[in-house]
Amino acid sequence: MFLRTLAFLVIASVSALAQITYDSAHNATPIGGTWCSGSQNVVTGSGFANPANLTFVYPKTTGISFSFTETGFYEVARYRMSGNGSSPQCIIAVVNWAHGTFTYNLNGSITLYPFGDGYQQIQSPCAAKSSFIETYNDTELYQSWQIFRDPTDGPKLHLFQFDGAPLPPMFYNSETPSMLPTRPLRNVSSPSPSSSVSKRAVPNSAPPIQRWEAAGFIAVGALLGGALLI
Fold first, then answer.
1. Is the pTM of this model over 0.70?
2. Confidence of residue 149 (pLDDT cuts 50, 70, 90)
3. Under a CB-based contact definition with an 8 Å cutoff, are residues 168 and 79 in contact?
4. Are 86 and 73 spatial neighbours (Cβ–Cβ below 8 Å)?
5. Which residues 6+ apart lie within 8 Å of 85 measured at CB?
6. Quick one: which of 41, 91, 146, 173 could link to 59 by a disulfide (CB 3.0–4.6 Å)?
7. Membrane: present as a keyword of the record (predicted)?
8. Coil, strand or helix at 37
9. How far apart are CA 8 and CA 4, in angstroms?
10. Rounded distance between C-alpha atoms, residue 184 and residue 52, angstroms
11. Please, what is the Cα angle at 220 between 216 and 225, to 5 degrees?
12. Which range, of 16-20, 68-72, 126-130, averages the lowest pLDDT?
């Protein structure tokens, strides 16, 4: 009897998660599509990154962009700068791209699992190595998300990082996700299964610019209540 009741509760919890309510107070639209911050010059897709040769098309302005499909794929494009008050000439720029799959978690958070072919370019004119490109293969956890309908700008996506810090609000750029093919696009070693998420900020917020690292996912099990929908 106890096992039957427990199974019923688990099924009921999963069913409740699948029944997302779209209303003006929380989710005015589904999350599927392309979302862009600010002037919307940073947009996911072929106009931003070329993974085959590890290059970027630099946008006119900084910003972030997320694309999601209703079938569980995502892509993210980020272009951020960080100033240095004591050395104004030492501006650090980070251009970042990744894609993969995502899951809705039981507590309302979202986890992004990269394919492993992401990369980023870091430019720091005052550093010993002023510009370099490195692989970006980090699992990202967003504590919560909300979509509001702005009376002027329409739907706006709000993502909150693992620590609750909000990303810049993103405007609904396109109902059809602007994305590169949803599969690994360059030859890299297969990413190891994510067992931890770093408690550091992704390069979305500046200053300072910090990146997620694929180490330290230890606290996620407790944070998610020990359950991930994969």
1. yes
2. confident
3. no
4. no
5. none
6. 41
7. yes
8. strand
9. 6
10. 10
11. 160
12. 16-20
Instruction: Give me Rg for the CA atoms of the chain.
Output: 18
Indicate the helix (H) or strand (E) that contains 3. Answer: helix 2-18
DSSP 85-145: SS-TT--EEEEEEEEEEEEE-TTS-EEEEE-S--EEEEE-TTSSS-EEEEE----EEEEEE
Token readout for 156 is 């706006």
Residue 158 CA to residue 163 CA, distance in Å, equals 14
| Count of alpha carbons within 13 angstroms of residue 84, beta-carbon side | 12
Looking at residue 29, its amino acid is T
With contact defined as beta carbons under 8 Å apart, do 138 and 112 qualify? no
Structure tokens at 119: 């990369």
**156 CA to centre of own chain:** 15
Other CB atoms within 10 A of residue 94 CB: 23
pLDDT tens sequence across 41-80 = 999 999 999 999 999 999 999 999 999 999 999 999 999 9
Dist. CA 120–CA 189, nearest whole Å: 17
Residue 165, both tokens: 């810090």
Q: Minimal CA–CA distance to 143: which of 113, 109, 167?
A: 109
Query: What DSSP designation does 44 have?
Result: S
d(CA 84, CA 91): 6
Q: Which residue has the tokens 């980070």?
A: 94
